[in-house]
Design goal:
- The chain is of the alpha/beta class and about 210 residues long.
- It contains 8 helices and 5 strands.
- The protein has a 5-stranded parallel sheet with strand order 2-3-1-4-5, sandwiched between helices.
- It comes from Parazoarcus communis SWub3 = DSM 12120.
- It catalyses: dTMP + ATP = dTDP + ADP.
């Protein structure tokens, strides 16, 4: 593949906290690089110096729901402008831990943000840009919560939410996947890491390397 002439691909990983997606991102990045593909690995909120500062506020500072949503999209706008679009335009692929599907799931589904307000922010911040492929790690909230507790890491304010919150987040993710079945592939995350990795590699290979 000519990395200088073709537009890069945009792959995102989604799922509730504890679903195990983060541990699989490195594997996908490694597989792509083994194929000679230039890859940018990033995360949201974050991905840029300003985005990382906003991430710290979002994960640890209590705030109004609409403030939370707008800060999420402010970090995303910087991310799109500074990293994602320049990389894709240069032929590099971007593999990102979360994107706008997460905001729909957490702020609209989990917190109850008006979906119309989400739609306005999404169309304003990245009009015409959606991931080429989204891997949604689906897991029962009680299993995810157990995994989060087992890490021993001090949880952020989202990870401290109750089970009902994560039930709503999971339902919103599945609703989003139902709306975009060609883009969003659901991964059963209640399996071994080896089984999950094999499925992801097969999906990526089928999509671009078959």
């Amino acid at each position: 593949m000519n990395q200088t002439s073709a537009r890069g691909r945009f792959i995102t990983f989604e799922g509730i906290d504890g679903a195990g997606k983060s541990s699989q991102i490195e594997a996908v990045v490694s597989v792509l690089r083994e194929r000679g593909i230039a890859v940018e690995q990033s995360r949201e909120p974050g991905g840029t110096p300003l985005g990382e500062r906003l991430r710290d506020l979002l994960l640890h500072e209590p705030m109004h729901l609409e403030t939370e949503a707008m800060l999420m999209f402010a970090a995303r706008r910087e991310h799109v402008a500074r990293l994602i679009e320049p990389a894709l335009s240069a032929g590099r692929w971007v593999v990102c831990d979360r994107f706008s599907d997460a905001t729909f799931a957490y702020q609209v589904g989990g917190r109850g943000l008006d979906a119309a307000k989400f739609d306005v922010l999404e169309s304003w911040v990245h009009p015409g840009l959606q991931p080429d492929l989204t891997l949604l790690f689906d897991l029962p909230p009680e299993v995810a919560a157990s995994r989060v507790r087992s890490t021993g890491v001090n949880p952020d304010r989202f990870e401290r939410e109750q089970r009902d919150f994560f039930v709503r987040v999971r339902d919103a993710y599945l609703e989003r996947a139902h709306r975009a079945p060609q883009r969003i592939r659901i991964i059963d995350a209640d399996r071994s890491p080896e089984q999950i990795r094999a499925q992801i590699e097969a999906i990526v290979a089928e999509r671009w390397f078959a």
